[in-house]
Amino acid sequence: MCTHQPACPTVDSPDHDAAVIVAAHPEQGWNLLCNGTIVFDDTGELLPDGRAVGPLRGVGGLAVAA
Asked: Which domain of life is it from (predicted)?
């Protein structure tokens, strides 16, 4: 799917979400990346092969400086 240089990371790369956005739909809360991944505003992902990646959730609350 990626035709520009340098090529975007493949969907199997650890940094696959660094691919270029080819279709943005902020009103619906998702973007299509050049490598075929759909990234949602809640950080969840739908990979081209149909696998779903759940949203990334932080652990614990906010840190407060002492």
From this structure: Bacteria
Residues spanned by the domain of 41: 16-53
Q: What is the dihedral of CA 44, 50, 14, 61, to 10 degrees?
A: 20
pTM of the model: 0.76
Phi and psi, residue 45, nearest 5° = -140, 150
Report yes or no: 1 and 11 within 8 Å, Cβ to Cβ.
no
Q: What is the mean pLDDT of residues 12-29?
A: 92
Q: In this predicted structure, what is the pLDDT of residue 54?
A: 86
Overall domain count for the chain: 1
Instruction: Please report whether residue 3 resides in a domain.
Output: no
